[in-house]
């Protein structure tokens, strides 16, 4: 059995190290040499993989937004039951948040460090992801109007995305807690 698929590429290793470093010290508090040292290469050697530190940040933040959107669409498309689709979305977002606390921190702190073009791209993917949730929530609760559904979705995201600051339980227990709280918040509207 090959383990090549499980082993991250050098580019993925660099992005993971950059996310961890940016989460701890902020985008502007991290140098290219810091990231290189974290993956065992010189800072200048990173330029074989990325044109700049800005390009790393852009790939991190556009990448998480695109992954959330595609993952959300996949989960909704896998069922015709809107209540099940909503549960799949909650589970997806909770799983993503628990696996990627550094990326959430970087997004919250450093989104405004992106170029205007990359910032717009991230926001467009995020908008589309929100709309996947809104449509699913409205399908599950037809009496709910879209503005209220959208506000609820953003509130649920805030709850789930608090994991870099609130994950004080083991992953399994934290996952259950977040899913229960997200469903409770949705039930309250």
Task: Please tag this protein with its features.
189 residues, mainly alpha, 9 helices, elongated, HTH-type_TetR-like_transc_reg, HTH_TetR, KstR2_TetR_C, DNA-binding, TetR/AcrR family transcriptional regulator
Polypeptide structure, described:
Residues 31-50 bind DNA. Keywords: DNA-binding. Pfam families: TetR_C_24, TetR_N. It comes from Saccharopolyspora ipomoeae. InterPro entries: Homeodomain-like_sf (IPR009057), HTH-type_TetR-like_transc_reg (IPR050109), HTH_TetR (IPR001647), KstR2_TetR_C (IPR041490), Tet_transcr_reg_TetR-rel_C_sf (IPR036271). By secondary structure, the chain is an all-alpha fold. Helices cover 73% and strands 0% of the residues. The protein contains nine helices and no strands. It has helices at residues 10-25, 32-39, 53-77, 82-99, 101-110, 116-140, 146-160, 163-166, 171-187. The chain starts with 9 loop residues before the first helix and ends with a helix.
The low-confidence runs, each spanning 5 or more residues with pLDDT under 50, are none
Radius of gyration: 18 Å
How far the N terminus sits from the C terminus, by CA atoms, comes to 49 Å
Q: Outline, from the CA principal axes?
A: elongated
Helix % is over 70%
Question: How many distinct helices?
Answer: 9
Main beta-sheet strand count, sense and barrel state: none
The mean pLDDT is 94
Which band does the percent of strand residues land in?
Answer: under 5%
Protein name: TetR/AcrR family transcriptional regulator
DNA-binding region: 31-50
Domain HTH tetR-type: 8-68
Keywords: DNA-binding
């Amino acid at each position: 059995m090959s383990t090549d698929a499980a082993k991250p590429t050098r580019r993925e290793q660099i992005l993971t190290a950059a996310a961890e470093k940016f989460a701890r010290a902020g985008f502007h508090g991290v140098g290219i040499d810091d990231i290189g040292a974290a993956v065992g290469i010189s800072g200048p050697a990173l330029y074989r993989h990325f044109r700049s530190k800005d390009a790393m940040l852009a790939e991190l933040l556009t990448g998480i937004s695109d992954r959330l959107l595609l993952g959300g669409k996949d989960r909704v498309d896998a069922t015709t039951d809107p209540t099940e689709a909503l549960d799949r979305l909650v589970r997806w977002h909770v799983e993503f948040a628990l696996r990627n606390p550094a990326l959430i921190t970087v997004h919250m702190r450093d989104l405004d460090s992106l170029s205007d073009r990359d910032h717009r791209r991230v926001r467009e993917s995020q908008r589309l992801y929100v709309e996947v949730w809104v449509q699913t929530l409205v399908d599950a609760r037809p009496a709910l109007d879209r503005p209220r559904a959208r506000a609820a979705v953003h509130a649920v995201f805030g709850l789930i995305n608090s994991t870099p600051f609130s994950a004080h339980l083991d992953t399994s227990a934290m996952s259950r807690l977040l899913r229960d709280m997200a469903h409770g918040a949705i039930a309250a509207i």
